[in-house]
Design goal:
The chain is of the alpha/beta class and 192 residues long. It has five helices and twelve strands. The two termini are 14 Å apart. Bound molecules: glutamine. Glutamine binds next to helix 4.
């Protein structure tokens, strides 16, 4: 009998509950992560959408930045959505805020502009046989993709879902629909 993996959700700010619900729908045991010790024994981590500056500063204040950086560098499978995509990036186009530097991409925050602050759109996602309904809220896009990073979905020519090794990042919010296929795809690819 295989023991199901335990997936942590970084629970500092943002749509934590929605990710917990999406994972529980898949029958996956979950844990909220607020302290460094909450990372112990996890099989995967979700970094939710919210406000990346706030999440980054709270992580700094709670002594989580270093432990998160080393857990991701050591290969902890991670699904990072929206603000999460910004946090895992190697760099952002403008501004100065704490980043985890786990994914070799440059990300532009609030990239779709004022006219398109929020929108929804069906996306072709590599690995899914039917389109996925993407909910975008003040979403980032990926401006530059490192050589080991694969683009998994785009809006126009802009990457909005990327993956490298065990890290998958989306500009949109798979936790805000009741479709858990992206969570499942990530867990399968991450070996969970
Ligand atoms: N605009 C937010 C940021 O820069 C991200 C928005 C979101 O997560 N919905 O952090």
């Amino acid at each position: 009998m295989t023991v199901p993996p335990t997936i942590g959700v970084l629970a500092l700010q943002g749509d934590v509950r929605e990710h917990l619900v999406a994972l529980e729908r898949l029958g996956v045991p979950t844990r909220s992560v607020r302290l460094a010790e909450d990372l112990t024994g996890l099989d995967g981590l979700v970094i939710p959408g919210g406000e990346s500056t706030t999440i980054g500063r709270l992580a700094e204040r709670f002594g989580l930045l270093h432990p998160l950086r080393s857990a991701l560098a050591d290969g902890l499978p991670t699904l990072a959505t929206c603000a999460g995509m910004i946090l895992v990036a190697g760099a952002i186009v403008e501004g100065d805020q704490p980043l985890l530097g786990a994914l070799d991409v440059v990300v532009r925050r609030n990239a779709f502009g004022r006219q398109n602050e929020s929108f929804e759109m069906d996306l072709d996602v590599k690995g899914l046989d039917r389109p996925f309904h993407g909910v975008f809220i003040r979403a980032p896009w990926v401006e530059k993709v490192g050589s080991d990073v694969e683009v998994l979905a785009r809006v126009g020519d802009r990457p909005v879902m990327v993956g490298s090794g065990r890290i998958v990042a989306t500009s949109f919010h798979p936790e805000l629909t009741d479709d858990s296929r992206i969570h499942r795809l990530w867990m399968e690819d991450a070996g969970g």
